[in-house]
Every structure is written in C-alpha cells, then in structure tokens.
Design a protein that fits this description.
Blueprint (H helix, E strand, L loop, with lengths): L2 H4 L2 E2 L5 E5 L2 E6 L2 E6 L4 E6 L2 E6 L4 H22 L2 E8 L4 E5 L2 E5 L6 E4 L4 E4 L5 E6 L2 H13 L10 E4 L13
Antiparallel strand pairs: 1-6, 2-3, 3-4, 5-6, 7-12, 7-13, 8-9, 9-10, 11-12
Subunit structure: Part of the 50S ribosomal subunit.
Family: Belongs to the universal ribosomal protein uL6 family.
Function: This protein binds to the 23S rRNA, and is important in its secondary structure. It is located near the subunit interface in the base of the L7/L12 stalk, and near the tRNA binding site of the peptidyltransferase center.
Length: 177
Amino acid sequence: MSRIGKKPVELPSGVSASLSGQTIEVKGPKGTLSFNATDDVTITIDGNTVTVEPRGKSKRARQQWGMSRTIVANLVTGVTEGFKKELEIQGVGYRAQMQGNSLKLNLGLSHDVDFPVPAGVTVTCPKQTEIVVEGIDPQLVGQVAANIREWRAPEPYKGKGIRYKGEFIFRKEGKKK
C-alpha cells in the first residue's frame, strides 16, 4: 500500500484545480501547470482537496499511485511558492554574471561559457560566486541547475567547480613525494 498516495492534496486559497479526463490543471498566483496521469490511477477533486486512487491491485497501479500524488502536490507547490535551486562556484577566477537572457560563466576554460536561460525559469546571480535558479516546474528547475553544474562539476582534489549549495564533495589526498 502506498502511504504517500493515501494522503489527499490540499488546495490552498487562491489555487484552483480542474480535471478533464486524466489531465489535471492547477492554476495559482505564479502560473498554471498541468499533469497528464496514466490510466492506472483515478484523480478526483472534492472541494479544495485532490485525491488519487489506484485502479486495480497491480504493481504498476500502486507505483503510479504514489508518484501521481507527489506530482499533483508539486504542481500545487509550484503555483503557490515555486521551486529554487542554489549553486555556488568555487575556484580562483571562476565567476558568473547575467547578461540579458544568458548566463555568462568564467570557469577557467579557454573561452567564456554563454548559457541561454530557457523560458519558464529565472536565473539570478546575487554574487559572482552564486547562481539561483527559480521557477514553477520542479523538473525544469532541476534540469537547468544540472546543466549549469555540468559545465564544471566539482573535482575531488581542490573542490573547484560548480556545486549545489550545501553539497558535500568527498576530498581526496594528492600524491606524496
């Protein structure tokens, strides 16, 4: 039994949800998001709560039950609060700055990296060594943050590179004479 799937998703004030077939659309102060559920689950809206129930006892139906409920909860969180990933840059001369709609990264390469920011996500640089990625879609926010981190992932010897804020990098000892 899914313990996550049993919990109904509460809709806060200012958020409305509509259901058409297997597609749920959630509207809130920050925007609109939708999710197309599989045929293994049934989504129902009762007033200000959304419940997800499995159709049948199959393993796939139980898997989709918890996942679908979590995605619906993320839709509600996205249109009310939004999602945020923070990155920090470590290394001598490594820096980031916004130029128009692209993020300019100096990462010790022979050229500067111009990272175009996709629609639906906002990227800001409060400091030269900090990058904040914000948006209403958790998948898109996480993917953009991962793509930025991919340009210079932290290395284990000196820890130079782009890392998530609070991420621990296991450090290795260099070779000895």
